[in-house]
From TrEMBL:
Residues 68-259 form the ABC transmembrane type-1 domain. Keywords: Cell membrane, Membrane, Transmembrane, Transmembrane helix, Transport. InterPro entries: MetI-like, MetI-like_sf. Belongs to the binding-protein-dependent transport system permease family. Pfam families: BPD_transp_1. Signal peptide: none annotated. This is Inner membrane ABC transporter permease protein YcjP. Gene3D superfamilies: MetI-like. It is a multi-pass membrane protein. The chain crosses the membrane at residues 12-31, 67-91, 103-124, 136-159, 180-202, 238-259. It comes from Paenibacillus konkukensis.
Length: 273
C-alpha cells in the first residue's frame, strides 16, 4: 500500500500543480469581483477581507441582465433544437438498415470538417435576404446547423452500441418505432445527451464572431458582445469587470457540474466495442 502511494506521488503532485495553474485565475477573478476599486489598487493580489456586492449591482445596472437573458434564451433554445434534431437523425442512422444509411451518416459527419467562419459571409447575406438580421433567429440557425454534425456523430456511435434485444422486446410488446425512440432509446443514451448538451451549450454561450457580425442592436446582444462593451466602459474599474466575468461564467460551471458524471461515458460511448 505504501509502495503504491509512493509511486502515485508524482501524479498527485502534477495534478496539484495543474490545479493551481488552472484554478488560481478563476479564484483571483472571483476574489477581485468582491473588492472595491480602492482595495484593488492598494493590494491587487491579496485575499479579499470583506465581501462587497456593489460591483455586481453596477454590472447589472450597465445592462448585464439583458445580455445574460439573451444568452440564456439563445443557448437553451439552440441546444434544445440540436438535441431533438440530432436524436431524430441518429436513431434511424444507427438502428435501421436502408440503402443510404452510410452515405447520409458520412454526409452529416463531413460537416465537422467545414471551417465554420468560412460561412460567415454567406450566412450574413442569407439573414439579410430572410429579414432576420439583427435578431435571435439570425444566431440560432447557424448555432443549430454547426452543432448537429458532432452531436449526430456522438449519438449515432452511442446508439449503435445499444443491445438490440431491448428494442426487439419492445417491438414484441407492441411498441411502435416512435414509442421505442422516446421511451426506450433516449433514456439509454442519457450520457451521450449530457455530453452534447454541455459541448454545445459552452460553444453557443461563448460564441463571439457570428454574434458580432449578425447582431447590432444593444437589446439583442449576447454576453460575449456585452463583455466587449463592458471592457470599454469599465476598463479602469477592474473589480466591476471581474464581477461581470464571474456572473457570465457561472452558467457554464453550473451546467458542467450538474452533468459531469455522464460526460466521460458519453465521450467514450461507441469508442470501445
Amino acid at each position: 500500500m505504501a509502495l503504491k502511494t509512493i509511486r502515485s506521488a508524482p501524479l498527485y503532485a502534477a495534478a496539484i500543480v495543474l490545479l493551481v495553474f488552472t484554478g488560481y485565475p478563476f479564484l483571483y477573478m472571483v476574489m477581485t469581483s468582491f473588492k472595491t476599486q480602492q482595495e484593488f489598487f492598494k493590494s491587487p493580489f491579496t485575499l479579499v477581507t470583506s465581501i462587497q456586492f456593489g460591483n455586481y449591482v453596477l454590472a447589472f445596472q450597465k445592462g448585464l441582465s439583458s445580455y445574460f437573458l439573451n444568452s440564456v434564451f439563445i443557448s437553451v433554445l439552440s441546444v434544445f433544437l440540436i438535441v431533438i434534431f440530432s436524436a431524430l437523425a441518429s436513431y434511424p442512422l444507427s438502428r435501421m438498415r436502408f440503402a443510404l444509411n452510410k452515405p447520409l451518416f458520412m454526409l452529416f459527419v463531413s460537416g465537422m470538417m467545414l471551417p465554420i467562419h468560412s460561412t460567415l459571409i454567406p450566412i450574413f447575406k442569407l439573414t439579410k435576404d430572410l429579414g432576420i438580421y439583427d435578431s435571435w433567429m439570425a444566431l440560432i440557425g447557424p448555432y443549430v446547423a454547426f452543432g448537429l454534425p458532432i452531436s449526430i456523430f456522438i449519438l449515432t456511435q452511442f446508439m449503435t452500441e445499444l443491445p438490440r434485444e431491448v428494442e426487439e422486446a419492445a417491438e414484441i410488446d407492441g411498441c411502435s418505432h416512435r414509442r421505442i425512440f422516446w421511451s426506450v432509446i433516449l433514456p439509454m443514451v442519457t450520457p451521450a445527451l449530457a455530453t452534447i448538451v454541455i459541448y454545445n451549450f459552452i460553444h453557443v454561450w461563448t460564441e463571439f464572431i457570428f454574434a458580432l457580425v449578425l447582431i447590432t442592436s444593444p437589446e439583442n446582444m449576447t454576453l460575449p458582445l456585452g463583455m466587449q462593451k463592458f471592457y470599454g466602459e469599465l476598463t479602469v474599474n477592474v473589480p466591476a469587470l471581474m464581477a461581470a466575468l464571474t456572473a457570465a461564467s457561472l452558467p457554464i460551471l453550473l451546467v458542467y457540474f450538474l452533468a459531469q458524471e455522464k460526460i466521460v461515458k458519453g465521450l467514450t460511448g461507441g469508442a470501445v466495442k
